[in-house]
């Protein structure tokens, strides 16, 4: 009996040893640490498809919403089991993870990109990451309700007209059965729409005035367009289905308010389309308008387009894994069936051979561009120490919402402008 | 003669347990019995602790990719205004919560050892909040507080003293039941004859409580004080879920002070909030934090131990 056990133990040891050695086959494997929780299901399907087709193992793990950086930090410690594809979405991330990025110049997948707009390079010109989808945001309008309120579908052309509609609808909310703006909640699940997206208008117009300063992340900003930011923010908070005092707490589900037609406007982006269509909204009743904020010439504005979804390949992975990963990425952007699933979840992929987008908001952003309107790129991606910078902005806006006055707005400006310099210094020490 | 026989017999019965034949194999295998626990302790505590200590002297992005830089991190940690603020805030919180939790727990335990009807039911119900995790509790209570405060057009996130007292209420609700159980056990162990003797001597019930009962439950008080004090200092989940440090004071130079941020949350925010440049500083803060909690815990244990009476 004893002998039998001893033999058994030896056998187990031997097998595990062989398994250890055998694990790293020459084929290589792919491990994608995914950034978009809403895409998890589709990506798992794609992974399975690729494994079935080629036999190469593809693992997709999705980080919980809002914890990507934490997850990536711990996953990267795993040596040979570290992710081979990860997301490096902005200049700050390039600085942080640049050492881990494989140079994608001259790779087949990078050559498939349809535009140079979706490439992130480090200071030495190394191509660190490439965009796999892009997005646009603005103010989503329910045009059916707009007509019901007595305005033409394309009535809103600038801040003045937006203000007229919003104030009029808000005043007649009881009679119409819907209000102007859906909730502008400031809790974690929603505050980024205002501290990230809406803030983009300030950075963007500032960068138009002084393009040289904004080629890389500026150490400090001027806040020239803070009044415009305030005007639009106030318009959204005052003429809203949700009272201002309740915004700090959050939890009003703006998407639901919009989908159930209790609000005319919804501040968000093209990724909301699948959710809204699931709730029964039709593409012909929806449109997206730019952030009109009273800047001169804004009649020619387009939507805010850009992305934080950039693929990077782990340079510290084994050669076989890197090769397998690059092949997988190339397959994903060229294979018809695979890219169809990917475009279904991502909205659009900026690659020559990927299938075309079916997202109405992205279609609209193209229509704006084709009509000669200027597209507002995501200057927001420069925000230094983005989490802390935005958290301070949330705190200041909460105080302002609790007691809207010039004194409290001054604090918002401080968090916005001086906070930028402080966080830039902290991030670049 | 009789006596020595008895002694011999006793010695024999001892020796049967103490016999080398039985002892030796047990002794030899002692490491084998200890091993699982020691291994778990090393993997789960000693190793991460040493690694953390080492990393506090490094600049690093991931824990396997570091560069030694000496005491820089500690200098930066002490110079950080938000760290000092959260230290004093945490100390204040710990003191206030220790008083409230222990007084309430003792009162409840005292009431529930007086033989009122449904004692067991009450004890169970009071203990139950302790079974809910901190994050969940934080969100539940933020809903409760905000449910009331929204009626006045405001929120717990708008006022730092509401945040403070909110957290105290939450912690009391969670911890009172647990401490109550310890106090109940202590109260039940107070010798009946002592209380009876006091009664016969004509002591009032207040005198009995302060002169007999409390000195006798001093061991329970020691352990409860220790637990609630270190819990107060180490608090993280509830802090994160209830206020997350809001509201902030926005300084004119753009720096912020998170008015309801306690030490553990401050360390977490330093580690993850800033683009990897201050991870070493966060690690240094964590080491300082460990030394602090250990010292306070030990000092407190020693001082209350002195007041314990031998039964």
Structure notes:
The complex is a heterodimer of chains A (429) and B (311). Chain A is of the alpha/beta class and 429 residues long. Chain A has two domains: 17-134 and 307-352, Periplasmic binding protein-like II (D-Maltodextrin-Binding Protein, domain 2), CATH 3.40.190.10; 136-305 and 365-427, Periplasmic binding protein-like II (D-Maltodextrin-Binding Protein, domain 2, 3-Layer(aba) Sandwich), CATH 3.40.190.10. Helices cover 46% and strands 13% of the residues of chain A. Chain A has helices at 2-23, 40-54, 68-75, 91-97, 108-111, 143-148, 159-171, 173-176, 192-198, 200-209, 226-238, 254-259, 273-278, 319-334, 336-346, 360-370, 386-402, 406-427, and strands at 30-34, 58-62, 85-87, 119-121, 127-131, 135-142, 179-181, 263-269, 286-289, 301-306, 310-313, 374-377. In chain A, strands 6, 7, 8, 9, 10 and 12 form a six-stranded mixed beta sheet that branches. Chain A has a four-stranded antiparallel beta sheet with strand order 3-11-5-4, with helices on one face. In chain A, helix 14 packs across helix 15. Chain A starts with a helix and ends with a helix. The relative contact order of chain A is 0.16. Chain B is mainly α. Chain B has two domains: 2-55, no CATH class; 73-305, Orthogonal Bundle (MetI-like fold), CATH 1.10.3720. Chain B has a two-stranded antiparallel ribbon with strand order 1-2. In chain B, strands 3-4 form a two-stranded antiparallel ribbon. In chain B, strand 3 (248-250) and strand 4 (256-258) form a beta hairpin. In chain B, helix 4 (72-79) packs across helix 14 and helix 13 (263-273) runs antiparallel to helix 14 (279-305). Chain B starts with a helix and ends in a 6-residue tail after the last helix. The mean pLDDT of chain B is 87.
């Amino acid at each position: 009996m004893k002998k039998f056990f001893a033999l058994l133990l030896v056998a187990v040891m031997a097998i595990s040893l062989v398994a250890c050695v055998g694990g790293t086959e020459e084929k290589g494997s792919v491990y994608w640490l995914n950034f978009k929780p809403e895409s998890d299901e589709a990506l798992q399907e794609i992974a399975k498809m690729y494994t079935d087709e080629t036999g190469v193992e593809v693992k997709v793990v999705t980080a919980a919403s809002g914890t990507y950086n934490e997850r990536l930090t711990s996953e990267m410690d795993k040596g040979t089991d570290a992710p081979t594809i990860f997301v490096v979405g902005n200049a700050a991330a390039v600085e942080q993870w640049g050492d881990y990025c494989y140079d994608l110049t001259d790779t087949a997948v990078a050559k498939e990109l349809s535009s140079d707009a979706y490439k992130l390079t480090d200071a030495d010109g190394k191509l660190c990451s490439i965009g796999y989808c892009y997005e646009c945001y603005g103010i989503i309008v329910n045009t059916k309700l707009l007509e019901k309120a007595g305005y033409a579908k394309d009535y809103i052309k600038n801040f003045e007209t937006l203000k007229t509609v919003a104030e009029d609808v808000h005043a007649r909310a009881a009679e119409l059965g819907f209000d102007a703006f859906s909730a502008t909640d400031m809790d974690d699940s929603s505050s980024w729409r205002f501290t990230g997206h809406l803030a983009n208008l300030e950075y963007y117009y500032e960068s138009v005035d002084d393009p040289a300063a904004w080629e890389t992340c500026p150490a400090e900003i001027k806040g020239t367009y803070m009044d415009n930011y305030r005007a639009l923010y106030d318009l959204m908070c005052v003429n809203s289905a949700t009272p201002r005092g309740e915004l700090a707490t959050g939890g009003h589900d703006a998407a639901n308010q919009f989908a159930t037609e209790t609000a005319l406007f919804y501040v968000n982006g093209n990724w909301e389309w699948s959710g809204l269509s699931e709730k029964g909204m039709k593409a012909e009743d929806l449109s997206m308008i730019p952030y009109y904020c009273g800047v001169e010439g804004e009649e020619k504005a387009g939507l805010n387009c850009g992305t934080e979804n950039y693929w990077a390949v782990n340079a510290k992975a084994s050669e076989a894994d890197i090769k397998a990963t690059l092949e997988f990425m190339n397959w994903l952007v060229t294979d018809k069936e695979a890219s169809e699933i990917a475009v279904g979840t991502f909205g659009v992929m900026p690659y020559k051979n990927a299938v075309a987008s079916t997202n109405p908001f992205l279609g609209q952003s193209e229509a704006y561009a084709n009509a000669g309107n200027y597209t507002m790129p995501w200057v927001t991606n420069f925000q230094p120490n983005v989490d802390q910078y935005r958290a301070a902005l949330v705190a200041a806006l909460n105080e302002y919402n609790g007691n809207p006055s010039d004194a409290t707005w001054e604090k918002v400006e401080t968090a916005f402008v001086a906070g930028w310099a402080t966080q830039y210094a902290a991030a670049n020490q | 003669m009789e006596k020595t026989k008895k002694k011999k017999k006793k010695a024999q019965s001892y020796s049967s347990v103490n016999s080398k034949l039985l002892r030796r194999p047990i002794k030899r295998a002692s490491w084998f019995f200890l091993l699982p626990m020691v291994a778990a302790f090393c993997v789960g505590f000693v190793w991460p602790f040493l690694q953390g200590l080492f990393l506090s002297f490094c600049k690093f992005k991931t824990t396997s990719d570091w560069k030694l830089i000496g005491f820089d991190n500690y200098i930066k940690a002490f110079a950080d205004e938000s760290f000092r603020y959260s230290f004093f805030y945490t100390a204040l919180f710990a003191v206030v919560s220790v008083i409230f939790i222990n007084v309430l727990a003792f009162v409840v335990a005292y009431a529930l050892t007086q033989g009122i009807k449904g004692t067991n039911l009450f004890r169970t119900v009071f203990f139950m909040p302790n079974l809910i995790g901190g994050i969940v509790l934080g969100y539940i209570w933020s809903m409760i507080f905000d449910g009331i405060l929204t009626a006045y057009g405001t929120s717990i996130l708008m006022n730092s003293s509401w945040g403070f007292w909110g957290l105290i209420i939450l912690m009391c609700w969670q911890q009172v039941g647990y401490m109550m159980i310890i106090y109940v056990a202590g109260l039940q162990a107070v010798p009946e004859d002592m209380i009876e003797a006091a009664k016969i001597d004509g002591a009032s019930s207040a005198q009995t409580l302060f002169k007999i009962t409390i000195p006798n439950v001093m061991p329970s008080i020691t352990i409860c004080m220790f637990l609630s004090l270190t819990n107060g200092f180490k608090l993280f989940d509830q802090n994160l879920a209830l206020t997350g440090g809001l509201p902030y004071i926005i300084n004119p130079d753009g720096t912020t002070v998170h008015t309801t941020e306690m030490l553990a949350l401050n360390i977490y925010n330093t580690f993850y909030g800033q683009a990897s440049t201050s991870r070493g500083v966060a690690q240094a803060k964590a080491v300082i934090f460990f030394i602090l909690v250990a010292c306070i815990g030990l000092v407190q244990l020693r001082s209350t131990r002195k007041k314990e009476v031998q039964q």
